[in-house]
Write a structure and sequence with these properties.
Distance between the termini: 48 Å
Largest sheet: 5 strands, parallel
Helix content: 25-40%
Bound molecules: adenosine monophosphate
Order of helices and strands: HEHEHHEHHHEHEHHHEEE
Shape: globular
Strand order of the largest sheet: 3-2-1-4-5
Strand content: 15-25%
Structural class: alpha/beta
């Protein structure tokens, strides 16, 4: 039996009982995803993880077709850490309207990754809204690796009065500094090591223009490097794989 002596103890205990933590993912799980899941397990009574490769957020069919997928391995990893529930819907479950209805944002979603990937954030916001409505979590966990996405989701929650707390989780990296990403599986072993130069250069004390030049000299194909509100964002291609990252400045 618990004995509480202060109001805060009661309030904090109430928060921890029967709370649902939710971690939306596109599968092909790595330690970055698992850091969100582990945090949710610590902070909630139940944790639900969704594995849904959302086709509408890909602007390129080849990128969708080659996106890594391994359901058995994902389930094994989630079972090992005692996740309570996994949600693996199909396209028709999530899109009974066949994507006729969409969430639009006309500011932050149009720059950085949104400039190059038309309709990407529209789709991300739409699927996140659908998932949040279905799961009705108390807390939903998102990674700072996708910082623009995180900010847009915070905006979505505010705009539509969603009753959920968004929890920001730090980027998990390889020892080399490369941010973990499902797409890294497509890099060669040497490429994976070399790709860490992207983060090393991105976090240097140079201007975006100088950083772009340094990245190009190192054979990265630069999509963008831009600064916005104390944060530097970058996206590059290496061995044909799109890598994104961001650092506080
Ligand atoms: P994804 O499966 O790529 O859609 O990612 C699902 C969630 O995991 C998103 O909130 C991502 O920001 C987060 N995530 C992906 N990679 C990492 C990472 N390296 N560190 C922390 N969070 C991550």
């Amino acid at each position: 039996m618990k004995i509480f002596k202060t109001p805060d103890e009661v309030i904090n205990w109430k928060k921890t009982i029967k709370s649902i933590g939710f971690v939306p993912t596109m599968g092909s799980l790595h330690e970055g995803h698992l850091s969100l899941v582990k945090r949710s397990l610590l902070e909630n009574t139940y944790t639900l993880v969704s594995l849904f490769l959302n086709p509408t957020q890909f602007d390129n069919q080849k990128d969708l077709d080659t996106y890594p997928q391994d359901l058995i391995c994902d389930l094994k990893q989630l079972k090992k850490i005692n996740v309570d529930a996994v949600f693996t819907p199909r396209y028709k479950d999530m899109y009974p309207d066949d994507y006729k209805y969409k969430v639009m944002e006309n500011d932050l979603s149009q720059i950085l990754c949104g400039k190059m990937r038309k309709g990407h954030f529209e789709s991300v916001l739409t699927i996140v809204l659908k998932l949040l409505h279905i799961v009705q979590p108390d807390q939903a966990y998102f990674g700072e690796k996708d910082y623009q996405q995180l900010q847009l989701i915070e905006g979505l929650v505010k705009a539509f009065f969603l009753n959920v707390q968004i929890v920001k989780c730090p980027t998990v990296r390889e020892a080399s500094g490369l941010a973990l990403s499902s797409r890294n599986r497509h890099l060669s072993p040497e490429g994976k090591l070399y790709a860490s130069k992207f983060f090393q250069i991105l976090r240097s004390h140079s201007t975006p223009k100088e950083i772009i030049q340094q990245l190009e000299e190192k054979n990265f194909k630069v999509d963008y490097v831009e600064e916005r509100a104390n944060r530097r964002y970058g996206a590059v291609f290496y061995e044909g794989i799109r890598l994104i990252d961001n650092v506080e400045i």
